[in-house]
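pinging the channel bc i need a second pair of eyes. not urgent but kinda urgent?? the chain im working w is below, pasted from the shared doc
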Amino acid sequence: MMVEYFLRLALLLPLLGLLIWGSLLLTRYLQGRIVGITGQGRSLELVETSLVAPGIKLAVVRFHDREILLGCSRSGLVRLGECAARRGATGPTPVNVAEQA
């Protein structure tokens, strides 16, 4: 009776460890795909986020040589502004979203 318990423990404990390790690897892989790690041919990059209030964030996203300012809340995303991506010391040129509409 006791031998059977130790055999099950010896088999299931390493299996449980492998499942936990595999879950961590899968989570790391999926997070990299969601955030958009640059250097792998991706066109989307999260540049910076800032917490404004609980549930409200500002995020700067770089997409196809443009930097887009997004307002993020529980109800959704709103594009607040856009400019050319920063390159060297020249700085970005702001573009008013209202003028584009």
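so Residues 88-92 have pLDDT under 50 and may be disordered. and The CA atoms of residues 9 and 15 lie 10 Å apart. — does that match what u expected or am i reading it wrong
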